[in-house]
Amino acid sequence: MPQFNESQYFGEYPLSWAASIDNKRIYNTLISYGADPNLVDTFGNMVLHVIVAREKLNIFGFALKHSEKPAVNDMTNNYGLTPLALACVLGKSIIF
Fold it and tell me: Which of 16, 32, 61, 92 would give a disulfide with 50, using CB separation of 3.0 to 4.6 Å?
């Protein structure tokens, strides 16, 4: 089980931070400069895992369906959890 405080977790990369604060403008800018939404941090979390932890439903679909670089929804983190499985474990029903 992840050992982080999801209310203070912003990921380890600028793209995860932009997603965690629900800022699509910064997210798009970072993507245009080559940011990868599927890059994982030390927990094995990629941008969708961070979005789930921060309960940012608006940007979840945006990242998943991004026209330039969509995030992959079936990647597992170091705990074997996909973003949706992480939502279940953390009790983040807002994602559903």
Answer: 16
Tokens of 44: 């094995």
Q: Write down the residue that tokens 């330039």 correspond to.
A: 68
What is the rounded CA–CA span in Å between residue 65 and residue 41? 21
Q: Identify the burial level of 3 via C-beta atoms within 10 angstroms of its C-beta, where 0-12 means exposed, 13-18 middle and 19 or more buried.
A: exposed
How do residues 20-76 score in pLDDT, each as one tens digit? 999 999 999 999 999 999 999 988 999 999 999 888 889 999 999 999 999 999 999
The residue extents of the domains of the chain are: 6-95
CATH 1.25.40.20 fits 6-95, yes or no: yes
Contacts for 60-66: CB closer than 8 Å, 24+ residues apart: 60/95, 62/24, 62/27, 63/19, 63/27, 63/37, 66/31, 66/37
pTM, to two decimals: 0.87
